[in-house]
Amino acid sequence: MKKLIAIISVLAAGFVGIAKADITMSAGQSLELQSVGSSTNVSIGGNLSFAFSQDLGNGVTVSMSGLTFDNDVSVVDNIAGPADTASSQAAATTANIGQVTEGNLSATNTLYRSTVNVVTGVGTVTTGTSNKAVDADAFEQISFASANGTLTYGADLEIDYADTGVGDVTGSDLTGKGIAGASSKIALGGTTGNGVSYSTSVGGTALKIGYLFASGTGAADLFDSSASGNNSTVAISTAVPVGPLSASIGYTAASATGGDTNSIGVSTSMAVGNGSLSASYVSVDSTTDSTEMGFAYTTTMGAATLSVGYQQADTDGQDNSNQTTARISQPIGTGASVFAEMISLSGGTDTTSSSETSSIVLGSAFTF
After folding, report:
1. What is the pLDDT of residue 229?
2. Looking at residue 257, which CATH number applies to its domain?
3. Is 118 within a domain?
4. What pLDDT is recorded for position 24?
5. How big is the CA angle at 295 (ends 291 and 299), to the nearest 5 degrees?
């Protein structure tokens, strides 16, 4: 461990001495246990992330999203990439080029025949794949911050500003593992891709504007922003104080070959008792329209934090889906905590024989 710290210190000193960059590093570890239906699942993993920033000396600070290793319960070996497959070789092919007839054998007075085959093709060799791709979009976003605001450009940019949804208070990916899908749910269209965003503040109002040249997957670091097949997206959001409330409004317009999607979301929160109450409403106008409303309440009980949330979604032609979530977290020391959370889904669910509608997770988390 001391050697690792020494190496990191030397590297950091080199970066700082040459580029005067600020380097931040964080890490965490978690151990989680899930009870879902008749199954008990255990997940253990951690995360390690790096980020870099530099003051240009002219009032502008440049920052870069760093490499992140993370635990993901949906990915083999917790590393993003294709599943492992073994190398293989197909059988060789042969062909019969005819028969050769020998003379009569005096002892049996029969003919002796032999068939001659030749190899016409060597079996195809298939090379196995492994989980070697880690955070493939690392270092593909760059931000320029000044007194006037922050401009960000890059790949895998998210501008889902209309999704102001409130009501899901879970924090673990494991909690939703094995849970049935909801028949009614909102879909904002393509809100992630290659693009640019700008955030600033005007008076006491926060403002964000985002635009995607091309949404969806593809060659993240090389793309044609004017290609005819691009699905572009524009989004804007604002947050304003309204008396004792804080309100946010977001709008997203996503274009696609199958039809455009226009979404608007509104959320608000206020102090209630010893905690805060939040509410939201999202409306999606698309080929199939959807709406979602949600509520959440967060409070403290001694050193513990308790959150309860509720969401209801309504999609045209589907039954309403209702989701209730809860989470309680208790610190047990500096950078360490234990937590419990649950999810319960009812109403319109795409339930199959292998899907459940409720789950409970117990876990511990450590940050370094």
Report:
1. 65
2. 2.40.160.10
3. no
4. 87
5. 160
What is the structure's pLDDT at 79?
45
Token code pair at residue 108: 């049996």
Residue 76: inside a domain: no
The count of other CB atoms within 10 Å of the CB of residue 284 is: 24
CA 365 – CA 46 distance, rounded (Å): 9
pLDDT of residue 194: 85
**By C-alpha distance, which of 49, 254, 281, 257 is closest to 158?**
254
17 sits in which H/E element: helix 2-19
User: Could you tell me the two tokens for 143?
Assistant: 């931000």
Expressed as residue numbers, the domain containing 14 is: 2-71+131-367
How many other C-beta atoms lie within 10 A of the C-beta of residue 135?
A: 17
For the chain, the domain total comes to 1
CA distances (Å), 249 to each of 62, 268, 284, in order? 28, 9, 14
Strands of 17-174 (E only): list them: 21-36, 39-55, 61-64, 68-69, 88-89, 93-101, 113-121, 125-126, 141-146, 149-158
Give domain status of residue 291, yes or no: yes
Closest CA to 292 of 207, 170, 182: 182
Q: Which residues pair with 158 in a beta bridge?
A: 192
Residue carrying the six token digits 């490499």: 67
Q: Which residues pair with 207 in a beta bridge?
A: 200, 238
Question: What pLDDT is attached to residue 17?
Answer: 45
d(CA 195, CA 156): 8
Torsion on CA atoms 299, 302, 305, 309, rounded to nearest 10: -40
pLDDT at residue 218 in the model: 47
- 50 vs 109: CA distance, rounded Å: 86
CA distances from 177 to 278, 311, 338, 347 (A): 26, 18, 20, 19
Sign of CA dihedral 350, 356, 359, 364: negative
Domain annotation covers residue 85: no
Residue type, 346: S
Q: Contact 186/291 with Cβ under 8 angstroms?
A: yes
DSSP secondary structure of 320-339: -EEEEEEEEEEEEETTEEEE
Entry pTM: 0.74
Q: Report residues of the chain scoring pLDDT below 50.
A: 1-18, 78-83, 112, 129-133, 218-219
